[in-house]
Amino acid sequence: MKRFNGIITATLLGMLITGCSLLPSKWDDNEAAGVTDLRWAIMYLDCDLDPVLIKHMIDDIYKKHGWLSTYVETKGTSDIEYLLDKMSLTLDPMYEKETVSQRYCALKQGVLQQQAEAIALTVMRRYD
User: Fold this and answer.
1) What is the pTM of this model?
2) CA dist., res. 103 & res. 100, Å (int)
3) Would you kindly state where each structural domain of the chain is located, as residue ranges?
């Protein structure tokens, strides 16, 4: 009888563990990491630096944005892709400048932070 209980327990435990993997989920670790990296880079953009250094930081943000955009486009995540396209309207003009003034950086950083937060909340709430 103890052996039978052990078999039943092991079977139920196995079904419980594998059952979760059978449920469809929209959660994606790569998307979550990508949006976190992007948001972190925007949060720590230091607009008090020399304009040339600000430009280097913006180049890094642009690369992170590009990676995430490519990933969601390839995956077919249209809602995130739409939000990233909207962010491009803010980020692209910054990237295209040779140098970025401190005032311009501070103004655009606020907008980018709001956009990054909206994207992050959209990605992070995809657990169900």
Assistant:
1) 0.78
2) 8
3) 29-124
